[in-house]
Amino acid sequence: MLNKESIAHIEENGVALSAMQHLIEMKENADRMTTAIDGIILPKDYILASFEKYLPVPFVFKASLSTTSIADWLSYVNSCASEDTGIYINKQEMSALAIIDQGSHTLPRWGKHRATLTLVKTPEYADLLKYNGNPIAQKDMINLLLDWEDCIQCYIEPEISDPGQDAETKQLTFKQSLQSFRRLTIDSISHLEQIQNDASGSVDVKQAYNVSAQGQTPINKIVMTTAGYEGLDETQITIMLRYDKSASGVIVFYRIIKQEQMIENRAQAFKKYIDNGINNKDITPVIASIVYQ
């Protein structure tokens, strides 16, 4: 005679077998199940295992491709994309995610098939970003110029005190640019500061300083011609410079002008490049992030 524990065990096994049969039926009827959400109750401490790995073919195609090549990414996406595919571009990371089997809000799919493209910064652009907004030693500024001679152009823009005054921007040769950075000096300037109060007046002598290139105005503008990221078209980046002194000598600060606008423009160019490369015109790339499934 069976005791209570044996009867309970048989009953639980029966529930598990019933659940397995239910899952099989769900798979067989998957094409007809478009709106219903089905569920089952399993006994506590039971593990629901899938037999999918024993089947001749999987239930759905599951794959995740990653690449840094625009050409390879476009080739792969075009080989398997459909109207169910969604493409999302991250403008900060300069990456693109294609969810091949996304589906739609009315007919969603599992989203298990994805392809990610992450663009790589060009070496000169990566070097430029390293010091953007941070102090850079004189010798490191010279090395930056030496490393990227082919894509850097230096200028001296005069300071205009009178808005109506005409002034010309001076474009320097590479040799002149190199000499300018090598000859940076700190010139001390004594000046008087008058402090007046009701009781008496006092005079304070202070030491100011000026950075020059052996008496000449130092470089204050650089234009770098670069794609920024491998595979994109070249654009020009404008950098403005200022100088300061430190215990070891002259230090340089530079800042990329209109950096946020530059990032936005590059993302739009990236989006256009992808849009032109996708064969299925029912797919429209968007600049956005998504959390799906």
Features:
single chain, 293 residues, alpha+beta, 6-stranded antiparallel beta sheet, 13 strands, elongated
Protein described:
This protein has 293 residues and is an alpha+beta fold. Among the domains are: 1-59, no CATH class; 123-160 and 167-258, no CATH class. 28% of the residues lie in helices and 29% in strands. It contains six helices and 13 strands. The protein has helices spanning 4-28, 70-80, 123-131, 138-147, 174-182, 259-277; strands at 63-67, 86-90, 95-99, 113-118, 135-137, 152-156, 170-171, 184-196, 201-213, 221-226, 235-246, 249-256, 286-287. A hairpin with a 2-residue loop joins strand 11 (235-246) and strand 12 (249-256). The chain is elongated. 15% of the residues are buried.
Could you write a compact summary of the structure shown?
Among the domains are: 1-59, no CATH class; 123-160 and 167-258, no CATH class. It is of the alpha+beta class and 293 residues long. The chain has helices at 4-28, 70-80, 123-131, 138-147, 174-182, 259-277; strands at residues 63-67, 86-90, 95-99, 113-118, 135-137, 152-156, 170-171, 184-196, 201-213, 221-226, 235-246, 249-256, 286-287.
